[in-house]
Amino acid sequence: MAESSDLHRQAELFLYREAKLLDEGYFNDWLDLLTDDVKFRTPITESRDQSIDTTPLPGDWSIVEEDKRFLAQRCERLAGNFAHSEQPRSRTRRFVSNVLATPCTDGVLVESNFIVFQSRTNDSETFFVGSRKDRITINGDEWKIAERTVSFAHRILPRAISIFI
């Protein structure tokens, strides 16, 4: 199915807005971009046997598997200074690229690449790199993430994930 330039541009602007909200710490506004039944997954895609297909399947083990309730609790911890791994809060910058938007029966499938820069203290800076597949629902002018699957390009993550990807 061909991607329309208008749909593509709307998808880019949506992802840019999401990145800005997270970088600036507007976590409650970010939560408003998610459906009530949203699912975030980061499946394990590494295998010692390179002949094995590591494409994630439903029910596979995940590094992260979260719903909106859990994401809201994480936001609350960050806002209330209870996330000790984020004291002081990280400085982040998210970069989104290679956005492809394809209409699907229940919205839009948006694929993208990302780089997230995280600075913790003077001597602790990290980059997370990978790709995302988002299923986004559209109701009028309102876009919401219904499902996100994150695949890291790293074989070993550079540090524990204390931020939203």
Structure description:
This protein is an alpha+beta fold. The protein has one domain: Nuclear Transport Factor 2, Chain: A, CATH 3.10.450.50. Helix content is 22%, strand content 44%. The protein is built from 3 helices and 6 strands. Strands 2-1-6-5-4-3 form a 6-stranded mixed sheet. A hairpin with a 2-residue loop joins strand 3 and strand 4. It is globular and about 45 Å long. The two termini are 28 Å apart. The model has no long low-confidence stretch (mean pLDDT 85).
Summarize the structure.
The protein is α+β, with helices and mostly antiparallel strands and 165 residues long.
Helix/strand layout:
Blueprint: H1 5-23, H2 27-31, E1 34-43, E2 62-67, H3 68-79, E3 91-104, E4 107-121, E5 124-139, E6 142-152
Parallel strand pairs: 1-6
Antiparallel strand pairs: 1-2, 3-4, 4-5, 5-6
Second rung of CATH, namely the architecture: Roll
Largest sheet: 6 strands, mixed
How many E strands?
Answer: 6
How many helical elements? Answer: 3
Number of individual domains: 1
What name does CATH use for the topology? Nuclear Transport Factor 2, Chain: A
Terminal residue distance: 28 Å
Strand order of the largest sheet: 2-1-6-5-4-3
Our Rg estimate from Cα atoms comes to 16 Å
Mean pLDDT across every amino acid position: 85
Choose one word for the global shape: globular
Instruction: Provide the structure class.
Output: alpha+beta
* SSE order: HHEEHEEEE
Note poorly predicted spans.
Answer: none
